[in-house]
Design a protein that fits this description.
The chain has 109 residues and is mainly beta. Helix content is 15%, strand content 42%.
């Protein structure tokens, strides 16, 4: 059986889109998907251990829940960036919220 492929000429626009997609995949984050922490999962004789990298997140704001065999780890934080003089007359003030939600299906045991 013959296969058809759509012809897509190489242009600067498509090349830049390809680079953006590659960078998003490489760094595992996009504006749409948000932050996704990296995890290590280990198995012992009687437990599973999940360690997550959560730089800048306060431990008291991280929620861990189990519901119907699904483990959920989630949190959000507001990052503050400011450039101000001593009198607090802001020249630049920006706020940014970062949140994440990771879910894992737990094994039967």
């Amino acid at each position: 059986m013959n296969m058809l492929a759509k012809y897509q000429p190489l242009t600067l626009g498509t090349t830049l889109q390809d680079i953006d997609r590659f960078m998003d995949t490489f760094f595992n984050t996009t504006a749409d998907r948000g932050f996704s922490p990296l995890v290590d999962i280990a198995e012992t004789n009687d437990a599973y251990i999940i360690e997550a990298e959560l730089p800048g997140f306060d431990e008291k704001n991280v929620e861990v829940n189990i519901d119907g065999g699904i483990l959920t780890i989630e949190s959000k934080k507001i990052e503050k960036s400011e450039n101000a003089n001593a009198d607090k007359n802001y020249v630049l003030k920006e706020r940014h919220m970062v949140s994440f939600c990771r879910t894992f299906r737990l094994p039967e045991n």
